[in-house]
Amino acid sequence: MSDYQTVLFELADHVATITLNRPEVLNSFDQRMLDEFADIWRRCRLEDDIRVVVLRAAGERAFSTGVDRKAGRFRHPNPWSADDPGFFLGAKQNRVWKPLICAVHGMCAGGAFYWVNESDVVICSADATFFDPHTSYGMLSALEPAALARRIPFGEAMRIALFGLDERVGADRAHTIGLVSEVVPGAREQVWARAATLAGRLADKAPLAVQGSVKAIWDSLSMSPHAIREVPLMYPQLSNPASQTEFKPGPRVEPEIR
Fold this sequence. Notes:
By secondary structure, the protein is an alpha/beta fold.
């Protein structure tokens, strides 16, 4: 599959840029988008020309408001055979270890957290708001906040899950609790530009070293304290010899202070 209908996909200078492209429904996802993301993540995992992935969204109002409640999605009648949307949308669930930069503007709600939760760098514009509307519609909120609780304090994840449409987390609060690592002044265009800058810097680094770092850190989240001390040792042993042989560092640049 390469003729995508719900997203735009561009590849330039080793950076794959994915743009959610259903602004008329606030970039909510339907079954078509789920299927297209499954194909996109396969490409990102297998194509070595892709070193970094940027995820962003078209339109002015929203990054995404989660599932399209009108169009819906396919649900297997057997609950034990059903797939969660995260199986399609989650980069890490699809074994993509290329770093993923998520550039959020406007509303980011509900199922949109599937993307945020499995991103490596999340930045947002000053107009971004984050919320989970499930309980306001009489629906249980579980998978999104459970994964969110690995990124932010437990009490913050619980509050987002429980209060539904009654509360939204603004950009500054999102930065304070660690949901995003940077708030970009301005709106969509500014956060897109910043994401492109960050992606370019990562694309210039040794691909195996960057991808191995991503995998090692994510894998450590499910390890015991003893395993964290022992298991990650194998990652540099596997990657560094090949990476240092193939990669030649560029000139040093003045680092940013953030």
